[in-house]
Amino acid sequence: MTPPPRGATRLVARAFRGDPAAAAILGDLNEDFVRVLESRGRTAARLWYWREALGLVSGRLFHGLIRSLRDAAALRPGPLAGDAAHAARMLRRSPGFALFVGAVIGLGVGAVTTVYSVLKPLALALPFEDAHQLVWISNEAPGDSSLSAVTQRTTNLVDFRARTRSFSGITGYDAFFADRAYILAGAGGPERLVGVEVAHDFLDVLGVRPLHGRGFTTEEGQRGGPAAVILSHRLWRDRFASDRAIVGRGVTLNGTPHTVVGVLPASFDFSSVFKPGVEVDVLLPFVVARDNAFQGNILALIGRLRPGVTPEAARAELTALIAALGEEDPERWGLGAELETLQEHLAGPFRGSLVLLAAAAGVLLLVVCVSVSGLMLARSPSRAREMAVRKALGAPRGRLMRQLVLETLGISLVGAAFGSLIARLATGLVRNAAMIHIPLMDSVRLDTSALLVAAGVAVLTGVVVGTIPALQVAEGGEAGVLQAASRGSSASRGARRLREGLVVAEVALACALLVVGGLLLASFRAVLDVDLGYEPEGTMAWRLQPDAEFGSPQERSAFFSDLAERVRRTPGIESAGLVDALPLGRNRAWPFRGVVGRSRQEDTDEEVFPHVIGPGYLRTMRIPLAAGRNISPADGEGSTPVVLLNQTGARRIFGGAEEALGRRLRFWGNWEWEVVGVARDVRHLSPETGSGIEVYFPHAQMPDFRTMELVVRSGLPAAQVVATVSGVLEEVDPGMPRREFWSLEATLRGAVSERPFALGILSAFGAAALLLAALGIYGVLAQTVAEREPEIGIRMALGASAPDIVRRVLGRMLLLTAGGIAAGWGLSLLFSDVLDSVLFGVAPIDPRAFLGTACVLLAVAALAAGLPAHRAVSTEASRVLNAG
Amino acid sequence: MSRVGEFEFLVLLAVLRQAEAPYANRVREDLEQNAGRRVTRGALYRTIDRLVEKGFLAWELQPSEVPERGGHPMRRLLVTEDGLETARETRAVLATFLDGLEPVLGEA
Question: Does pLDDT of B30 surpass 80?
């Protein structure tokens, strides 16, 4: 006859060990099993048995725990102090153990608390009042992250404000603020400030209260209104020495007097929220008027929903309004409204990384749990004996439970303290890492809620995992424990298997973390290895905003060309060029109106990315030409308007580089631009994003640009280049700020800063997991060797050689490690989906990461096993046998 | 009903009903078939343990020759004097409360 599944009967037998009814219970199960077998067949019966067994066992464990806790709680509060004292005594008796377990718990607590603190401002709680009411209103569906797609025209804001009811306020700021510059005159020399023009109600809608003074008034937000400015907390502190009296006084910006009406609080840093990586110094009023629409999609709109209005309802109202506006004016351009919560908008691009970090912290916490279980288990035989003795002497079960729980609580508190310390250090590092261009990273703090998380995680880990010995108490069976103790057998085969199982689990989890870390590393390197289309090494850039007045745009253009030419002629400078927007800088789009001589239908209605350059730009950036010629000084005001296309543009519009040459394009107005050359593609938006259609206009033919960027290539050390260029700038225009320069390599690092950030945190997690796995391997092996010393002694006395013994000891360990690695590989495949959105240039199943991790783990396992193996070999047969 | 809960009372009665074979599996079948409720194995064992603790039930192991039991013994359940007394009390309480409710509840 088919017997019931052996594993399940064993499970039941083990769970009911010590219960006098155990055999009868197994009999009951057996009897019903036979009945099910006859009526439903073998497979169904086995399944049925497993279900019954699992139900029985889990119910028993659960009710046992509940009962023990109830017993413990039912004790009068009187002895609580005594129990706490007892627990403290037990901890003092083995302080090393308590500290060590506390430190291990601290690793997990630190990881979870750090990740919680990092996620909190961005993903959990934006630092605004009722932040859930704040929404981002973009022009096109989320997904297209180009600035033109997420911004709106001024006319739209005017209509949205007047004709919707879902919002208590809609405000906006000039998303292209980085293009405008403000020069602050006064003591300390001219200083170039970054200013953002915001709608007058910007602070009100966000719910930000100025530290001093007030926000803008309606009059200040009107054309010709009083010139007002609000200072950032940083500028107020650094430039105005935190002088409260500055409110109401005047400052000169771009030669115009402005009144300082307010100072922002330290808690609101515009750039940290909306444009990480740029330091915003002042807010200025933006004129929200219909006649401002010519500027195109430049406003970033933020709305605050009325209480009780859902984003869906607001979206529906906007959609209806857009349809109505479209009907009223079919010619209207740039109509569109898509709505997402501000939190979604800000956190969206980093969702993959954030999910990955949270998952990794969870995995590390699991490693910690497994590791602490192993430690507790290693200690449990002696604890079980102690408990059995005390119980046999009449201590109530609840009392023992309570003491154990209190003891574990003590260890957990040590863990919470360690964890908070780690989290404090880690959040400090994150906050001060200037290169991280992720919103709100400088609001990352270890606050009260984070400390509560730390304490909660520590207690949960400690109590859940540390109650294993307590469960043994709850299970009773002290007679068995005492018998085993008197026989002197310390660990049964089952206990060893369990410990080995824990090691496999630790290795598996560590393996998964390391594989993910390896993939991120490979991905980061792939990003750095990307062919950007230009060479950032050895180049520096200056933002040029002349102080001098010019009679005409042409004069200004000539000033810029002359300046670039002078820099180029300076000894040590290889080349110099002018451009209005360097790669990885700003983002914008112009409409493309088609090829002259072709009907509109044939043409792509894509937008183009415009660059305005001087003749030396392509050479300085080392952007090669694929066809045709470069622009030259001869392409000036009076000559034919010419442009260069990038390769993608030539291919999409004309099918190829050669085909593009000589054709003419329209962008706006009736101007026609002849394509004279095709430049190689450049990764402008980010190293990970391919190129769209890009067009290079000669600055001399489009001179209406007040601010340009000067890029300089030189083999000289950076400090020398800076000194040289500064000298030229001062000579040409003493009033022009000279301090705003940067290296293109630094810009590149900033653009990919999310990667080393996630990579750094994950590497730390992986290293911690690896360490814990190594400790686990060492612990199990050391204990096994200690237990098997007599056996090893006998073997050696019988002539087994040292290498034999080492092979035995190590072989088992490598087998376990290999099992763990295989399981870990499987586990890391679970991460594939989220990894897919984060990785670049590397598949989530990249064999290098998997094999590399396996090598690392095997090496670490061999190292960790080395010491116990050595001890096994140096076992002296005579000593062991005498002791036995 | 103060000394036993509803399910405990049913288990006591079911044990009494199995005069010939008062074993857990029979008790469970009786409850499932005649009380119209699903009884999980764990719940029944826990209730038996609780009744034993309260002193209303006792049991003894009996070797079993039934081949289906795979050589495992059987647990013969026995309602104690205290248990019988409790069952009588509970019945009396129920009777008192049911008395006169026929117009509302109808005849049993």
Answer: yes
What is the rounded distance in angstroms from the CA atom of residue A444 to the CA atom of residue A587? 28
Amino acid (one-letter) located at A347: A
pLDDT in tens, A286-316: 877 776 655 666 778 888 888 888 888 888 8
**What distance in Å separates residue B24's CA from the closest CA in chain A?**
7
Q: What is the mean pLDDT of residues A336-353?
A: 78
A729: its two tokens: 């700038």
* A76 confidence band (pLDDT: 50, 70, 90): low
Contact B74 A34 (CB under 8 A): no
Measured CA to CA, the distance from residue B33 to residue B22 in angstroms comes to 16
Distance CA(A381)–CA(A359), nearest Å, equals 34
DSSP annotation of B3 reads: S
Torsion angle, alpha carbons of A516, A521, A524, A528, to 10 = -160
Q: Which residue out of A2, A25, A29, A31 would a mutagenesis test of the B interface target, given it has the greatest number of B Cβ atoms within 10 Å?
A: A31
Q: Could you write out the three-class secondary structure of A223-271?
A: CCCCCEEEECHHHHHHCCCCCHHHCCCEEEECCEEEEEEEECCCCCCHH
Contacts of residue B91, Cβ cutoff 8 Å, sequence gap at least 6: none
Q: Do the Cβ atoms of B69 and A56 come within 8 Å?
A: no
* 3 state DSSP class of A464: helix
Q: Which residues pair with A713 in a beta bridge?
A: A539, A575
* CA proximity to A733, closest of A560, A581, A575: A560
The answer to whether the CB atoms of A31 and B73 lie below 8 A apart is no
A24–B74 C-beta distance less than 8 A:
yes
Q: Where are the alpha helices (DSSP H) in A740-846?
A: 744-751, 754-797, 802-829, 832-836
What pLDDT is stored for residue A428 in this prediction?
A: 79
Q: Please indicate if any CB of chain B lies within 8 Å of the CB of A63.
A: yes
The C-alpha atoms of residue B91 and residue B98 are separated, in whole angstroms, by 10
pTM score? 0.65
**Which residue is listed with tokens 């099910």?**
A36
Q: DSSP 3-state helix, strand, coil percentages of chain A (rounded to 5)?
A: 60, 15, 30
Strand segments (E) across A18-61: none
Is the Cβ–Cβ distance between A556 and A702 less than 8 Å? no
